[in-house]
Amino acid sequence: MKMLLLCYCCLLASITIGSVVGSLSVTELTSGTSAFVRVKTEPSFNFYQLNTDTASGSKTTCTISSIQVVNLILAIRYGDLPDAFGTADCVSDTSGSAVGSNSETCEATAASDSRAYVQVVADDASTSNAENALDILCTTTAPTSTSEPDTGGGACFSGDMTVRVRDREWPVKMKDLQVGDWVLQTQQTTHENDEYEYEYQPIYAMAHVEEDAVMEYLEIETEHAPKPLVVSRDHLVFLEGTKHPVAAQNLAVGDSLFLMDTTTIHNNATTTTTTTRITNIGTTYRRGKYAPLTPDGTIVVNGIVASTYVAILGKDMMELQQHYRIMSWHTFIHVLYMAPIRMACVHHGRVCPDYLFARDPATGYAKFVAAGFQMAEWVHRQNMPVQLFLLILTMVVLGPLALLEQMGLFRILSCISAATIMRGTRRLKKNRGTKQTTK
Predict the structure, then answer these.
(1) Residue limits of the Hedgehog protein Hint domain (predicted)?
(2) What's residue 415's pLDDT?
(3) Amino acid 125: pLDDT
């Protein structure tokens, strides 16, 4: 161990110099996936970082094992590289362990949202081989609290997902978005060539916001996207080869998502979207729940084309009696349910009713979203004649609004509606003033 300490001190000096010239190598690890690596044996100091940030209160557990390396020291630190002989949130030492039973586990809890870094110090005292095999596995578990973490319901992105915002040089994190920001979204123009039209449109409402909630998300890694897409299980994502978006929980490794190069899109443009194959789907706990709404019902997150809506009751398609598929939930929510909301809030925002977007303190949902979930659950419990009647009634009442929107007459109708509402408001105020004067 004296030799190990001496070599480590030499390494610290080299790191101080190497950090300036960028010579220090840090290998990325995927949380929940075992990594088979080679370590030097004279001794060696190896640094790793988990591929995603860890939510505050979450626990990172790393295990290393080898049948060859005798002395192993494992250290974990959040936010910066650990020092097994100095600053670290967890240090575990196997020095003196017998060959054949050499493994160690280190566990640390994040005090704030930050990246976990791991250090492995290896010293082979039994052989003179140039390098030996080593297995390392790091996992992240939910924070310990009096309440259970959300298991992924609703249409949400984690707070660290990024989107492109007009007039911003760099991508903006989901947690920093505001109503009124113009974000990059897309609309498919042809199904044959997967051609999309990208444009910036304003966020007209936030369907769900919970800044401090910790939630279990799906972490979807792809071949070409620089960062994984982290979404709730029921969130709808556009999949190659399907006409409608599917719930994230129904995706599988090998499926292809639509990817756009956000570095080459400046203003409105039509381009052929590339696809990227899913390489891994895991779970992760992240802080924050965010669900922005755009006029076209889509948004580009971490370069991946996604819907802004959710699969109701875990289904991609709207069904009668759970057997007869009618339409996709994306189509129903966007074309019918959201039509009057868009009429009030997008085409004439001055009359957008604030009470509809007041958040439920218990769930974080906007009132119109919570009402939609409750209505869908109630209709789901009814028999087929009732379900069919309600569907026809919805199409009769809301269908004309959707048709007017498609014909480009939505703005005219909204202006007429706005003028009527404003006139009625003025008349009401005038009548109240007259009554007070009379008194």
Answers:
(1) 153-317
(2) 62
(3) 47
Which CATH number is correct for 2-9+25-141, 2.40.420.20, 2.40.50.140, 3.40.50.720, 2.60.120.380? 2.60.120.380
Cβ atoms within 10 Å, residue 301: 29
Tens digit of each residue's pLDDT (9 = 90 or more) over 367-425: 778 888 888 888 888 888 888 898 899 888 888 877 777 666 555 655 665 566 566 66
HSE of 378, CA atoms in CB hemisphere, 13 A: 7
Q: What is the DSSP string of 172-208?
A: EEGGG--TT-EEEEEEEEETTTTEEEEEEEE--EEEE
Q: For residue 253, count other CB atoms closer than 10 A to its CB.
A: 11
As to burial, measured by CB atoms within 10 angstroms (0-12 exposed, 13-18 middle, 19+ buried), residue 155 is: buried
Cβ pair 69, 121 in contact under 8 A? no
Q: Output the six-digit token pair for 36.
A: 């088979």
Give the phi and the psi of residue 329 in degrees, each rounded to 5.
-65, -30
Sketch the domain layout of the chain as residue ranges.
2-9+25-141, 148-310, 315-439
pTM of this prediction?
0.62
CA 310 – CA 327 distance, rounded (Å):
14
- Dihedral sign, Cα of residue 365, residue 368, residue 369, residue 373: positive
Q: Which residue has the tokens 């075992």?
A: 34
Tell me the per-residue pLDDT of 69-121, one tens digit each, with 9 for 90 and over: 667 788 888 888 887 666 788 888 755 444 444 677 888 888 777 788 888 87
- Exposed/middle/buried for residue 30 (C-beta within 10 Å: 0-12, 13-18, 19+): middle
List, for residues 243-292, the tens digit of each pLDDT value: 889 999 999 999 999 888 655 555 444 455 688 899 999 988 888 889 99
**Class of domain 148-310 as given by CATH:** mainly beta
Given a contact cutoff of 8 angstroms between Cβ atoms, the answer to whether 26 and 81 are in contact is yes
Q: Report the DSSP beta bridge partners of residue 292.
A: 206
Query: Is 35 in contact with 120 (CB distance < 8 Å)?
Result: no
The amino acid at 114: S
Question: Between the CA of residue 58 and those of 213, 229, 288, 332, what are the distances in Å?
Answer: 12, 20, 14, 37
